[in-house]
Write a structure and sequence with these properties.
single chain; alpha+beta; 2 domains; four-stranded antiparallel β-sheet; four-stranded mixed β-sheet; 19% strand
């Protein structure tokens, strides 16, 4: 791999942006990984020969994706303001979320996920409840359903339930639960899943949005999430931490051997064990267990609890 001098690292050789190379020494690029494998791990005197570059590139990408899902946990952070529909559009490289918070007065307030359904797809119907179609025979669909709007409107409605003491009372329906002015503060039968003073959210993966409740439009939300490391298809921007470099070579070697005909089973097993052991070693290294951190935690073991 090519190394850069201090001026290129700290000031990007006078170009913009100045911070382009900061922290780059921790990583090795996908291009370097593929080139190194083609030079050092395949050939006439190696276990693998007659390889095409695209084969190594494919398995190297798959290895980086698996690392991002399981081991590296390179968390990305995105802050956006909510629109009037109280929705946060998922980032284009989103795979899974780590934490979602509301940014208010310089403080991050962690939000609780509401696993109850907060959205639904609906069809347009006429007065006789018959489904309407377009000229091509496809069902007509509105942008939002009544379920969508009921969780974001916060409108005061009438509670109708003849077997309840609150029948015909006015109240607010929030997250599918009813609240009344004279019952505020009561916590009998508390739903612990949403027992949080902060707003709740639910993720609609198919629509690619995060729905929020009990939060004002224009509120600032911070989403911490995990990507697959593919950098939106730009191979030149893909990299992997150097602690996982040797594992990535082992992963590519195992994947190639496992998919070939005529390879002895003991050779495949040896490659699989090599891959697993290198992944375990890399995880231990990346965990960065420092004696000073352990000492700080152990100092509280004799603390008295009231």
């Amino acid at each position: 791999m090519a190394y850069i001098n201090d001026y290129a690292y700290y000031a990007n050789s006078g170009a913009i942006p100045e911070d382009k190379n900061w922290g780059s020494y921790q990583y090795v690029s996908l291009n370097d990984v593929v080139n190194n494998f083609m030079l050092m791990y395949q050939g006439n005197h190696e276990l693998i020969n007659n390889l095409n570059r695209y084969q190594v590139l494919f398995h190297a990408k798959r290895g980086i994706q698996e690392l991002n899902y399981d081991a590296m946990k390179e968390v990305k952070v995105l802050q956006l303001d909510l629109d009037d529909n109280l929705r946060f559009i998922l980032p284009s490289d989103y795979v899974n979320w780590v934490r979602i918070s509301q940014f208010l007065n310089g403080v991050l307030y962690p939000l609780t996920e509401n696993i109850q359904t907060g959205w639904a797809t609906t069809y347009l119907q006429d007065n006789n409840s018959k489904i309407l179609y377009d000229q091509d025979g496809n069902v007509l669909k509105p942008q939002f359903s009544q379920v969508d709007t009921s969780f974001t409107s916060g409108a005061k409605t009438i509670y109708l339930n003849e077997s309840s003491a609150y029948n015909t009372q006015s109240g607010w329906n929030v997250d599918g639960r009813w609240y009344f002015d004279f019952a505020v503060g009561a916590r009998f039968g508390l739903n612990t899943e949403t027992a949080n003073a902060n707003p709740t959210f639910s993720i609609d993966k198919q629509r690619g949005v995060i729905n929020f409740s009990s939060i004002g439009g224009g509120a600032s939300v911070v989403v911490e999430y995990i990507s697959d490391g593919m950098e939106q298809g730009e191979d030149g921007s893909i990299s992997v931490n150097k602690l996982f470099e040797e594992y990535l070579y082992a992963y590519v070697r195992y994947s190639l051997l496992n998919g070939r005909l005529g390879v002895q089973e003991y050779v495949v097993n040896r490659a699989r064990k090599d891959k697993s052991s290198l992944l375990r070693n890399a995880k231990i290294r990346l965990s960065n267990i420092h004696p000073g951190r352990l000492l700080m935690n152990m100092r509280g073991q004799d603390k008295w609890l009231k």
